[in-house]
Fold each of these.
Amino acid sequence: MVEIEKTRERRNRIRAPRVAKHAGTGEEPNFTSTFAALGKLKLGNSGVRVSASAVDINTGKTVLSIDDRVALPTASIGKILLLIEVSARFDNREFAPYGILDKVAGASVGAAGLWQHLQAPSLPVADLAALVGATSDNLATNILLQLIGLDAVRARTESLGLTRTALLDLSRDTRGPDDAPQLSVGSTIELSWLFGALARGEIVNSIASQRVLGWLSLNTDLSLVASAFGLDPLAHRGADHNTLLVNKTGIDRGVRAEAGALRGNKRAVAYAASIQFDDTSLQARLRAIEVMRIFGYDLLEYVH
């Protein structure tokens, strides 16, 4: 009953009406650059949809809120939900971290990932989760989903109180009329909450949360918001210049999204940003990426 009540309170908090705001004036950074950049991007093109959220991990204070309840495509960010379910099953001893899974014909997908390029025909479950965290590995994602099932991931998502965030499908090279139109969708308020809860050890339990954070800390994609943090994409599991990051990106045609947790020498913040745009030119894509980087500069100022 206690868990049900907590879930109900979380859903009510997430669904509560919100207005766009920033952290204020004075000594505290105010995210005005992010507001200006997102506003300019949206006003300059009617086909652009934007959403952003940032929440102080320690105080729970919302420091940025821009259309944060809108569900937008988030590409590979939804794979976090799969990693959470995998981690929870390790705790329940439903399968061992060292259980071996084989490559399966038809599961291979191009684009993201390393396993498709490796000779190893089989890998342990924990290694597949690490590949998903490090390179958003599509083949590893599909093999884990074949084992666990989308229904189990959806049930876990609902148990967390998430109503606008979901992993919808397997990774696919092409999406037909019978497939989900997106790999995943999400609202930035829910994604920032999720990373904050992971950082506090509140997702499933502290051990399961830390396991998920460990996989995500391997992420090699620092091309969006995290490009502002000056970290080594291949080695940032520890603090560098008092800056510690765990993040997950989602990249697809016309989609740029990122969610994460950033800790500095003053504060810690959980954040998420999504941009959906008409990817008709390199200039349009670069404008979206630059806006994400501007958000990163404001986050860096906030934590330091």
Amino acid sequence: MEVFILEGLTELWLLIKYLVLGLIQGFTEPIPISSSGHLVILQKLFGIEIEGLSFEILVNFGSLIAVLVIYWKDIIRLIQNGLNYLLTKNPENKADFQFILYLIIATIPTGILGLLFEDYISSKLSTVAVVGITLLITGAALWIIRNLRGRKSEGDLKVKDAIIVGLAQAVALIPGISRSGATIVAAMLVGMKVETALRFSFLLYIPVSLGITVMSLGDIVGDDNIDALAIPYVLAFAASIIATYYSLRWFMNIMARGNLKYFSFYCFVVGILVILFL
């Protein structure tokens, strides 16, 4: 009897740990404090060693679903106006067509560097020590742009703006460098308005996350942990969807009020604590 109780408690604790991992990943994905860095920290604290990338891919896909739900009107508008411009050359639709092109251009650096350095990043840079240092870098970058208010809207963007933001997203492949933080910092440094920087950052997340998910389907299917951890994985996946949705809504309001400095403080504090104690 005691054995069954212990086994039940162990399974319950496992579910709780993966639920927390999914919630934290989902909550931290949209905000500029690095979801991948927090996953590394939590795995260390919980004593979980997640082999392979299946878990991270699944929870990131959950975040993607939440982003699609929030930005679906923008996505439909861009597709409709982009196709309309291709067919009719209507100048009213040119800005949206160019916006799509810039998103494609900004995706390329992440795709190339991800293919080239994925194994190195996973094996060498996914450590608590690296995350501590990169969180400090993220905090410093957020502090630099905390008061910036650009003037560029979608129709004012140039190819170089897309390349700069794309390179920033590629750097965020390193755990502890926030993807949303890096892209928003870069977008605001090139002069984008807050709302334009937000929209570009999270629409840019869609092709990258979708591409990673599709390319990793084979890894997920072949993951030895899938059968044993199916329920914890599904729980974390659902948690990431819900947490990302509400976190992104909250972050959009934070950005509108210009309170990025608080995320900078958070990254400094957590980065220092990680370096000192983990």
Amino acid sequence: MAITRQSIGRGGIRSAGYDRASRLLEIEFEGGRIVQHTGVGDEIARRFLSSGSPASYYRDNIEEEFPQKRL
């Protein structure tokens, strides 16, 4: 399944996208690493995608809280 990502371009995060139906948050970091986090709720994803400091929000609320796999 392909997730459409939007450009972020801040804090080392190149782009990110969310699929509500599967609750997957996909993040592409500068350097090309892509990870998917499973079980992410709508509100967490919305706050991350609209954050003025997405890298901090990611570290504080997503990175260690939701299972991830590297693509």
Amino acid sequence: MSFKTIVIIVLAVLITVIFMQNTDQVMFTLLWKEIYVSKLIMMLVVTLFGFIIGVIVARPRKKRKELSFDKEVSFDDEDRANADYLSPKKSTGLSDEDNDYIN
């Protein structure tokens, strides 16, 4: 068993024990209304809301990339020769040995 699984099981057991020990009724005020609710139910509701909020906050965000193509782009031979990533004539900061190895 992994460490994470053991921690989850221990926490689940502890939460269950705490819930079972708190079954008496308490007064809960919701806006202007007073409601008598079991501590067990109230703690369960608060725990579920906390879990849901934690899942929403901790989920990874999706990155959206917006691509717009306003005009058609075409390259001729002269543009290709002048392009940095294609031109072997431009200085890349590499030594001659590295340039020879790459080419």
